[in-house]
Amino acid sequence: MELNDEILIDAPKDRVYAALNDPEILRQCIPGCEELIQHSDTELEALVVLKVGPVKAKFSGNVTLDKSGAPDAFSLTGSGNGGAAGHAKGGADVTLTAQGDQTLLSYQAKAEIGGKLAQLGSRLIQSTAKKLAGKFFDKFAEVVNAQVSA
């Protein structure tokens, strides 16, 4: 499954990049995130509760950041296990482009799922993933915009 989208954030690029690397901001923005622990500059551990159709699961997983293209771009990869509900792994490439005092955030994400979740059907999974990504970026823009105006 692939997701691509972009969002215009009312903040300068350096502020957006810093926010994307702030575990507390990410914890607030990730739908269902109960815990986000930063183990190093590039390693995070997450505990997320998600409901996909009739399946509700608690996922624990790890995320690795590749900041070699910073601050214009970075990549992340991760995997999570939801016990009987299944597992997921994937990654995303994020690009930040300055547009005056605003920043255009573009992303391309890929994910693979297995277990009970994979049996729900690709349309339900795709629409849920799109909705979750939308919630994340809407909340992220809201948090960053609030920081800028504070």
UniProtKB/TrEMBL annotation:
Gene3D superfamilies: 3.30.530.20. It comes from the Bacteria. SUPFAM superfamilies: Bet v1-like. InterPro entries: CO_DH_gsu (IPR010419), START-like_dom_sf (IPR023393). This is Carbon monoxide dehydrogenase. It comes from Pseudoprimorskyibacter insulae.
